[in-house]
Amino acid sequence: MPQLRVMPMPADANIHGDVFGGWIMSQVDIAGAIPAARRSNGRVATIAVNSFLFKHPVFVGDLLSFYADVVKVGRTSITIYVEVYAERNRLEADTVKVTEATLTYVATDENRKPRVIPPLSEL
Ligand SMILES: CC(C)(COP(=O)(O)OP(=O)(O)OC[C@H]1O[C@@H](n2cnc3c(N)ncnc32)[C@H](O)[C@@H]1OP(=O)(O)O)[C@@H](O)C(=O)NCCC(=O)NCCS
């Protein structure tokens, strides 16, 4: 199941009319934070964007699906792999993988300091 499904609007376009990469990055960050917060059982902050590949352009009106999975759990950090698929012509089921990224989130406490991630058995 995708963590997010969203359709970029004209306000999300760059000067060439395609979707602005920074908008895609923000959606990827949101999508990745969902499993990170769930696994850490609390708030998280993004500490690093380890890799980011814009393989194909995204167009206004594409229906984007953001899939995000935990790839590594450390003491206080969680690394997430995010893939983004664009449905371009929905009636023709034309789906393209447009972006992939790996991000690291740190579990934080109420003072915004790193917090130890609980074992799965405690969730
Ligand atoms: C997140 C934050 C609280 C972490 O505090 P810190 O003192 O820098 O963190 P630490 O050095 O103790 O490292 C915490 C974890 O991050 C990991 N980490 C640190 N730098 C990293 C990097 N460049 N890439 C990947 N992981 C990294 C550490 O390995 C550690 O993980 P582990 O405990 O699983 O081994 C702090 O860096 C911060 O507030 N950053 C700003 C966050 C932010 O505003 N993000 C954007 C909006 S959400």
UniProtKB/TrEMBL annotation:
Keywords: Hydrolase. One of its GO terms (cellular component) is cytosol. One of its GO terms (biological process) is fatty acid catabolic process. The keyword Hydrolase applies. It comes from the Bacteria. Signal peptide: none annotated. The keyword Hydrolase applies. Residues 1-111 form the HotDog ACOT-type domain. GO terms for molecular function: long-chain fatty acyl-CoA hydrolase activity. Belongs to the acyl coenzyme A hydrolase family. This is Acyl-CoA thioesterase. It comes from Sapientia aquatica.
